[in-house]
């Protein structure tokens, strides 16, 4: 045997031994991940399982459609197993896909379920009968923005006592859309008790913001107040911004006498006192009284002549050697709005 023939035989032997070493691994790999003659299974394929979206909330609900195809050789069965938020609406069609056929999963979310000018990540778990990849995660990253927004989103004056003069709150209207749309057309109030005054314009980070002073005149108001401001823009494509306004307004009150006093009440006994309660301005009618001390009880007795005048009857029953009494009685209307607070004082004497 020549030297060349000997070398060729050795090379052939080495190749044969290598093939024996790798053949089992190749068989297993083809069985699990590759196409093999006689092996049948469904296989789900989605070209883009992750999506990034820059979305204007003024355009209405956000929607995206994932398209899928069965690249296997058996029917593919699909269902949405879970979503990261109940705000995600989905439509899957069809649930059963034959080999080579396509389908889609349409997902959507309403603007009111997202936060303006913030990024939200939504995930959808898609379950299939694909034996290799039975669960597929789809992701939608939404950078939601509003062309016009306000800070605060609700002007809330809180619970306040009625007084002569207007109450004030600051409001900033911010634009993040195109420069051409950053002009306020008009601001319309739902109530003559609400007015608005411009303060200045703020420009920062390519945004334009307008600062306003919102004024609420509580004259002739009482109880729970709800109104709104409608901010219109110069753009035909940007809808008006509705800003709710609310307040709880307590009416002024007077009592005669101005304080309820208990002097020298004997432990185990009780003493009853009465004051006349009158409310000035507004239309709310007192409905009930609440004593803030466990040894006190209070009752409102309406006047037969004046609906805003009542007799406030209070009973003090000292239950222990407490010494002095310093408390209040609160008067409310039918809506639970506090109309008046009456001071109560006294002391307990020994038997």
Count up the domains.
3
Number of strands: 25
| Gyration radius over CA | 38 Å
CATH topology of the largest domain: Immunoglobulin-like
Give the N-to-C terminal Cα separation: 135 Å
Considering DSSP H and I runs of 4 or more, what fraction of the residues is helical? under 10%
For the largest beta sheet, what order do the strands appear in spatially?
2-9-8-4-6
Order of helices and strands: HEEEEEEEEEEEEEEEEEEEEEEEEE
Shape: elongated
Summing up helix and strand content along with how strands pair, one would put the structural category as: mainly beta
Assembly level: single chain
Low-confidence region ranges: 23-34
What is the CATH class name of the largest domain? Mainly Beta
* Average pLDDT, all residues: 79
In what range is the share of β-strand residues?
over 45%
CATH homology superfamily name of the largest domain? Immunoglobulins
The count of helical stretches stands at: 1
The CATH architecture term of the largest domain is: Sandwich
- Main pleated sheet: 5 strands, mixed
């Amino acid at each position: 045997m020549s030297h060349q023939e000997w070398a060729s035989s050795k090379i052939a032997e080495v190749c044969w031994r290598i093939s024996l070493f790798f053949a089992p691994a190749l068989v297993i790999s083809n069985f699990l991940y590759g196409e093999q003659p006689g092996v049948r299974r469904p296989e789900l394929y989605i070209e883009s399982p992750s999506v990034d979206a820059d979305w204007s909330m003024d355009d209405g609900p956000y929607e995206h459609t994932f398209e899928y195809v069965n690249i296997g050789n058996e029917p593919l069965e699909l269902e949405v197993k879970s979503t990261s938020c109940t705000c995600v609406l989905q439509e899957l069609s069809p649930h059963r896909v034959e080999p080579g056929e396509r389908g889609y999963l349409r997902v959507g979310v309403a603007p009111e379920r997202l936060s303006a000018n913030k990024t939200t990540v939504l995930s959808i778990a898609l379950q299939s009968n694909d034996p290799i990849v039975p669960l597929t995660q789809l992701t939608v990253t939404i950078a939601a923005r509003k062309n016009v927004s306000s800070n605060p989103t609700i002007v809330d004056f809180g619970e306040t006592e009625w007084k002569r003069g207007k109450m004030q709150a600051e409001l900033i209207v911010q634009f993040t859309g195109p420069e051409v749309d950053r002009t306020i057309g008009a601001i319309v109030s739902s109530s003559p008790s609400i007015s608005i005054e411009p303060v200045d314009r703020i420009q920062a980070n390519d945004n334009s913001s307008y600062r306003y002073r919102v004024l609420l005149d509580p004259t002739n108001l009482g109880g729970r107040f709800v109104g709104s401001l409608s901010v219109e823009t110069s753009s035909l494509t940007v809808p008006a911004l509705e800003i709710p306004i609310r307040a709880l307004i307590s009416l002024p009150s007077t009592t005669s006498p101005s304080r309820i006093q208990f002097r020298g009440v004997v432990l185990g006994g009780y003493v009853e006192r009465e004051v006349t309660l009158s409310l000035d301005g507004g239309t709310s009618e007192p409905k009930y009284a609440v004593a803030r001390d466990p040894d006190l009880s209070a009752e409102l007795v309406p006047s037969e002549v004046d609906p805003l005048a009542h007799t406030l009857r209070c009973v003090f029953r000292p239950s222990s050697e407490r010494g002095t009494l310093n408390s209040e009685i609160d008067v409310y209307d039918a809506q639970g709005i506090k109309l008046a607070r009456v001071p109560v004082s006294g002391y307990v004497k020994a038997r």
